[in-house]
Amino acid sequence: MIRRTWVVQLLILMALVAACGSSGADERDAAIAEIVEQALPNASEFQAEILEDGEVTFEEYERSVLATLACAKEAGLEVMGPDLDPDGIRYDYLYRGVDANGDLLPDSVVLGRFDGCYARYGERVDSVYFAQHVESFGDAPIEIKEAYADCLAGHGIDIPPSEHVTVLLRAISTNEAASDCQAAADDL
Q1: Which of 29, 63, 132, 187 gets the highest tally of CB atoms within 10 A of its CB?
Q2: Residue 157 CA, distance from chain mean position
Q3: Residue 151: which of 138, 168, 139 has the closest Cα?
């Protein structure tokens, strides 16, 4: 039913692109440090322990994903996965809610259950982990890139959708007239 990884990745990617532009690793590291600083005060004890050294290893990320999904199962959700993405860096998973009669639960119920688990075990860990590895992730789906490219073209910015999503997002974040393009892929 729901795949959170692309949504989280794109939000973090947009924030990093906006913060770093095309400058180097120092600004990227500063942006990550700021994400950690902002995450710690509201982090659960579980996430704060992972974030206390300012970075998230794959093992810590994996522990967070597994804890989130275990919590979701305890909350009565069916979980499919996690499956390690071909890039070997992130997990994909799906979840849904089914009542005793086998009928699907409303999205609001499912999201309420999952969001509580994700807030407790994964959200802040994900934000730091994905920020650390943003260059390592595969590209966005072509549908998303086409939506961004079409919106940019409407503002006179010609970038083909064959470019990596970071090129498209950088163009959006550095051109005030194209700021509305950040929402271009929301309905996909």
Answers
A1: 132
A2: 26
A3: 168
